[in-house]
Design a protein that fits this description.
alpha/beta; Rossmann fold; 8-stranded mixed sheet; 15 helices
């Protein structure tokens, strides 16, 4: 597992506990935002067996990709990297309809990751498949800076927790693969068939400590280095973050890993329109609220030279989840003011409308100032 805070090159896997949550759309637009900021960014489609990142980017599925590379075709890894029309953004296609790529083995997965690590770039975004397939978990664990996309609905939240739990267990299993007694203990847990039979991380670590105290200490360090962040997508209101609180509490109680929130993205019909047109939202509607929210998340990453560690001002809010809620309330206020102004424009005289607009703009400016104060410090302070 690469610790991105110690590397100039950031590998950011993007996954989800279930499909249909907008993961690929977010990955594509986040990559575009990073590239526009002047940083060399590579988007990699690793949703093998279901690759469609190319369509979101507006690229035809006719170029060689990961599927050709792992199937033994005589291609170097650099030969499957495409330059896109977007500034500083490159793309590596996925399975490109090559059969048998949905279930690649560990050696093949390692070969892909090893080649990614050799690339000279600033950011590598991995668009992974949904669910807890071994390939998805291994690619997610290639870096400690993974992003998980969820929507504010119970099934999605539970699947996100399940993903994190499986990722943590996979991490421990790989870490102790050569420790016979601990490996046997972990395998015994996997054989349990009752629901929720695998104990919490604290209990697992306590049992490991009885077998090998030094190994337990190392395992705790590995878990603390694993720092995934959540993106809440398709929200309708800032209050939707309330259901996310249950996920955060479950992670803190049972998994004992650092867990943050990169931001919240509101539901918008423009997203579906961009998919149908095969045009990224940041290109089609750069001034839309969703585009601004995605760009803000990109800015958080850019301002965090030690990402996934975010330079949060915890004197103003308790954690990244509360910051995301503050940002969402500001976004809602800005949207509501714009809609209200549009309705009042038709009913008021020009003079009356100007007075109302000035008052609303003053309120927005005050909120914007609050966000600047509460959000991440600038690069000069990091």
């Amino acid at each position: 597992m690469i610790r991105c805070e110690n590397s100039y090159k950031k590998i950011i896997p993007i996954a989800s506990g279930k499909g249909g949550v907008g993961k690929t759309v977010l990955a594509a637009n986040l990559g575009i935002a990073l590239g526009r900021a002047g940083f060399r960014t590579i988007l990699v489609d690793l949703d093998l067996g279901g690759s469609n990142l190319h369509s979101v980017l507006g690229i035809k599925n006719k170029f060689p990709g990961i599927g050709n590379f792992i199937s033994g075709k005589a291609l170097s890894f650099k030969e499957i990297i495409l330059r896109t029309e977007y500034p500083n953004l490159f793309f590596i296609p996925g399975d490109v309809l090559v059969p048998g790529t949905a279930d690649i083995n560990y050696i093949q997965r390692k070969r892909v990751v090893d080649n990614l690590l050799k690339l000279e770039t600033d950011y590598i975004l991995l668009d992974l498949g949904s669910g807890t397939h071994a390939s998805t978990l291994d690619f997610f664990l290639s870096s400690n800076a993974g992003l998980l996309v969820a929507i504010p609905q119970v099934p999605s939240i539970l699947n996100t927790y399940s993903f994190l739990k499986n990722a943590l267990f996979r991490l421990l299993t790989r870490f102790f693969a050569k420790e016979k007694k601990i490996s046997e203990y972990l395998k015994s847990l996997q054989k349990e068939t009752q629901p929720n039979s695998i104990p919490a991380a604290g209990k697992i670590l306590t049992d490991i400590e009885r077998i090998n105290p030094e190994g337990c200490s190392n395992a705790r360090q590995i878990l603390q280095a694993f720092k995934p962040h959540l993106i809440v997508n398709m929200a309708k209101h800032p209050d939707d973050l309330a259901i996310v609180e249950s996920l955060r509490n479950l992670v803190q109680k049972n998994l004992e890993i650092p867990f943050g929130c990169l931001g919240i993205v509101f539901r918008d019909d423009l997203v579906h329109e961009s998919i149908e047109q095969m045009r990224p939202l940041l290109q089609m509607a750069p001034e839309s609220l969703v585009s601004k929210q995605i760009s803000r998340m990109a800015e958080k990453i850019l301002q965090s030279k030690n990402f996934p560690d975010l330079p949060l001002d915890l004197s103003e809010y308790k954690d990244s989840f509360e910051l995301a809620e503050i940002e969402a309330h500001y976004d809602l206020a800005e949207t509501s003011s714009a809609e209200s102004a549009k309705k009042q424009e038709e009913a008021l005289t020009p003079e009356e409308f100007l007075t109302v607009l000035t008052a609303q703009q003053k309120k927005i400016n005050e909120l914007q100032g609050t966000i600047r104060m509460l959000t991440l410090r600038g690069r000069q302070e990091t």
